[in-house]
Amino acid sequence: MNLRARLLSVVGLAAIPGLLAIGLAVKDQRDHILDHARGDVERAVKRASAEQVRLFHEAYQFLTIATTLPAIRSLDTATCQEAIEQIWRPGGQLATFGVIALDGTLLCSALPLSEHVNLADRAYFKRALATRDFAVGDYQVGRVTHRATINFGYPVLHDNGEVSAVAYVAVPLNWIHEALSNADLPEGSTVTLIDRAGTMLEHYPDPRNRVEKLVQESTFGVQLKQLNGDSLVRARGLDGEERFYLKSVLRDPRGRAMMDLVVGVSTAGIDVMVEQLGFRYLAVLLVVLATLGAIAWWGGEIFVLAPILSLTEAAKHIGAGRLGHRAPTLGKTSELAALATAFNTMASNVEERDRDIRAASNRVARLNRVYAVLSAINGALLRIRDRDALLAEACRIAVELGQFRVACIWITDEETRQPTLVACDGVAKEVAEEIRIELSESSPFGIGPTATALRNGTHVVIPNIATDSRTAAWAGWCSEHGVRSAGAFPLKKAGRVVGVLSLYAPEHDFFDDGEVKLLLEVAADTSMGLEFIEKESRLEHLAFHDIVTGLPNKRLFEDRLRQAISRYGHRNHRATGVAILAITNLRRISDTIGNHAGDELLRKIGSHLGDSLREGDTVASLATNEFGIILSDVASAEDVILVTSKLFNLLPRVVQLNGHEFVPAYRMGVAVHARDGQDPGQLISYAGLAVAEAQMAGAPMLHFYSAELGASARKTRRIEEALTHAIERQELALHYQPIVELASGNLSGFEALLRWTHPELGPVRPDEFIGVAEETGLIIPIGLWVFQEACRTAHRWQREDFPLSIAVNVSVVQIRDAGFVPDLLRILDDERVDLTRVRLGVEITESRLAENAEHMIGILARLRQRGLSVSIDDFGTGYSSLSYLQRLPVDVLKIDRSFVQDLETGHSGMAMIRAIVGLARGLGLRVVAEGVETDAEREILRRVRCSHAQGYLFAKPMPAFEAAQRYGLRES
User: Which of 257, 559, 621, 715 is positioned for an S-S bond with 551, CB 3.0–4.6 A?
Assistant: First the structure.
């Protein structure tokens, strides 16, 4: 096939997409027309549906209002008829209105009645009676209106709420004409209402064409069944005309399907429009094809065939190797002219290609060098953890593998922001330091690549140092060392410039785009290494130092103590002192003016301790309020005592914090190696025990560890271990000390006291194990056991003549526990204690009440609400204010035994007891004096009108069975 035939074939092939385009365009236009018709139909459906909803709502409103009228509710036919004539307006959209008796008889009607009418069989009537609410009937031809209507019923209620009749209204189906009269439907469109039985109810636009017949079994009816809410079906209607139909379901107000609304749009106009459009597009395509064929036939010879023959001849010569041969010029802008130009430049392109191959080879070799630099530096990042060593290695790699003349790294000082040369390779460092760098742009040494990269944070390349004014200040140095071009690449940490990698090359234009891209990766990886080293160093610092004070933490403290013992104690037999300094009121200071103030106090005291120690000693932060001190290389234990005493006495007694003066409360404990122990952990533990001993002393003081203190600590640990199993081994018991009424001497109640007898330790005093139980949390299960045992005793001792009181001591640790109140109330229920026959109560020490006062008040109030009494033990030894005492839910004040013991020796005890008794009487509280041992004390207490007392004068604490026998308590 020759070229001309091929051109004609191309024209023919070009027509195929045109035909496809015509088909698609016609289809698109058809779809557009159908969519437009669908839109008309959907608007008509929405208008009809809205009109239906409006009429139904109007019927509902009319019925709800009419049924409230007394005349309607009277059920008197004359009165009802007169009311209807007053409220009914003929000519509206409601066909009629009436009231139906319960037997179905129509009592009154808006339309005149010619005969007796019974509507008992109507659906709306039955539904209104059944549901006692608004009801919708089915389509029907009214017996009163004689028209196709939908009727609605609504119950008429007696005053007692019973249904007395049903009111109804009828809505004619011709509303469809009014709803669609302005719907702007295409010509030939129809709208038909069909009920659920398939009966045609109304027809638009000509209501005379309505045929009350079933369409369900007709061909048209079968096709309508295929319709859903959003699809069009093409079908022939009952009039024989073909249309597109869309169906919508009309529902009553309760959502029940009532009838179908079917809208049809004539297909005749749509088909004609589509056919005309297709013929028009096809005619245009045929004209275009004929024109293109003529152009291809005649133009191919002149513009294509002749030039191609001349190019073919030229190609033969060039293919034979005669590169000097040229094709004839064929114009300037045509494709054939471009082809001729390509033939003419082929020979010169071969020579240029060889030159490019050599240049590319050199460029690949240079990039390989930079890749080697990048790989080697990444390897250095993995093995080097020192900053200066890493930077020196990076410079060495750049010179040896990257073949740079000089490589330097400058790092800026964090405070002054001035650059400092930290690594260099390629020349001696003293020579490299001649590269003067300044950050000021006004200085000739501040406009070079390094300074510019530091200021701007972007890389800078100087292709030719000799001709660039920015490097004039270093021209002599560069010439002397064979430097022809330079580049500066910023080093960054967290987006901030911290230094520059400066590279100096022996050739002009050494830094092309590809090399610059790789060198930026080198700088980025070096920056990452710097950042990693800094983070690793910071993490290592945080692992061994306190965040608040910056001092060594407990981990580093123990390590340094171990080193000091090994260096001075084991080798030189010198003493090493370990001191722990506690600030016991730090929490109160923090609560007063904030945690930041507490942190500032710790920093100030830590700084003071650091300044006071010798070089080689250590001060560390061991806990929130504790400092540890190591005094190493001390001549003797006595010298450790002297040094720590001096150190303690020099502590600041008043500290300024945020414009306020605070007085820190110090406690210091000291242990000495090797007098007190050999192991570092043991020495720290001993110093902590000494701090605890200082805390128990109750005043700021310095305390030294002793063997007796160690023995006490060991005994405490043994008590703690044994106490863990005391309940399950049944080692605990309750003893009861009586409380008597001083005026009569009669028994008033008991205080339940916990006793513990261990098989090896023997009887353990409460002051030895109660504190241990509180510190370890064992007081919570032990306290519940005590309360349960007291409840069981109270249940056995319940009396009818007068209620007996039993008081149980409660620890503040128990009250802080969230399950304290629920557990106590559960025990009361389980043990079935009748609190009206026995006064069960709890006692809490006054000195512990002020700890979280609001919480204490809430807990005690809940216990009193349940019927438990509340006593304040050791009253007078704490610091309760009168206003605070008034708020406490308290029943009894117990005077501490220290005041009772002073009654016979001085007036202070007498005055204190008089004050407490007067206070209690003013607040309506009972008073119990504790620790009464002599008749003289009892007589004095009676004279000051103290009502109750307990003590050895009356009886010691005794087991429950002994108390029951002694006081004649019959156990139930």
Answer: 621
**Rounded CA gap, 206 and 211, in Å?**
11
Cβ neighbours of residue 633 closer than 8 Å, sequence gap 6 or more: 564, 567, 568, 572, 574, 576, 616
Contacts of residue 928, Cβ cutoff 8 Å, sequence gap at least 6:
739, 871, 892, 893, 894, 895, 947, 948, 949, 950
Cβ 913 vs Cβ 883: under 8 Å: no
Q: How far apart are CA 648 and CA 609, in angstroms?
A: 10
Q: Which amino acid is at 583?
A: I
Per-residue pLDDT reduced to its tens digit, 2-19: 666 666 676 667 667 766
Q: Which amino acid is at 626?
A: E
Lowest-confidence region among 69-78, 85-94, 351-360, 891-900: 351-360
CA angle 956, 957, 960 (to 5 degrees): 130
Residues 397, 380: contact at Cβ < 8 Å? yes
Determine if the peptide bond prior to 128 is cis (ω within 30°): no
The number of CA neighbours under 13 Å toward the Cβ of 500 is: 30
Whole-angstrom distance, CA of residue 134 vs CA of residue 152: 7
What b/e sequence results for 757-794 when a residue is b if at least 16 CB atoms lie within 10 Å of its CB, and e otherwise?
Answer: ebeeeeebeeeebbebbbeeebbbebbbbbbbbbbbbb
Block residue for tokens 């540890």 = 628
For residue range 805-846, what is the model confidence (pLDDT) as tens digits?
999 999 888 888 889 999 999 999 998 888 888 889 999 887
CA 122 from chain centre, in angstroms, equals 62
Please compute, for residue 774, the number of CA atoms within 13 A of its CA located in the half-sphere on the CB side: 14
Residue 740: beta bridge partners?
747, 949
* 569 and 561 Cβ atoms separated by less than 8 Å: no
* Region of residue 142 (left: phi > 0; alpha: psi -120 to 50; beta: else): beta
Distance separating alpha carbons of residues 19 and 16, to the nearest angstrom = 5
Residue partners of 745: CB distance under 8 A and separation at least 6: none
What mean pLDDT is predicted for residues 313-335?
A: 65
Give 254-259's long-range contacts (Cβ < 8 A, gap of 24+). 254/136, 256/136, 257/196, 258/136, 258/138, 258/139, 258/150, 258/195, 258/196, 259/139, 259/193, 259/194, 259/195, 259/196, 259/201
SS3 195: strand
500 phi and psi angles, rounded to 5 deg: -145, 135
The CA R_g of the chain, rounded to the nearest whole Å, is: 54
CB atoms within 10 A of CB 118: 14
Question: How far is the C-alpha of 313 from the C-alpha of 570, rounded, in Å?
Answer: 106
Cβ atoms < 10 Å from Cβ of 561: 23
* The pTM of the whole model exceeds 0.85: no
DSSP characters over 591-647: HHH-HHHHHHHHHHHHHHHHHHSPBTBEEEEEETTEEEEEEEEES-HHHHHHHHHHH
Alpha helices in 384-512 (DSSP H): 387-400, 429-432, 449-456, 475-480
Rounded distance between C-alpha atoms, residue 782 and residue 789, angstroms: 11
* Largest interatomic CA distance in the chain: 149
285 CB burial (10 A radius; 0-12, 13-18, 19+): middle
Q: Measured between alpha carbons, how far is 561 from 554 in angstroms, rounded to an integer?
A: 10
Strands 496-505 and 485-493: antiparallel
Q: Has residue 699 got a pLDDT over 60?
A: no
CB 358 within 8 A of CB 341: no
For 532, residues 6+ apart whose C-beta sits below 8 A from its C-beta are 381
Structure-token pair, residue 761? 């330790």
Going by C-alpha positions, the residue among 749, 745, 748, 742 that lies closest to residue 938 is 742
Burial 606-637 (b: 16+ CB within 10 A, else e): bebbbeebeeebbbbbbeebbbbbbbbebeeb
Sign of CA dihedral 933, 939, 940, 942: positive
261 beta partners: 193, 248
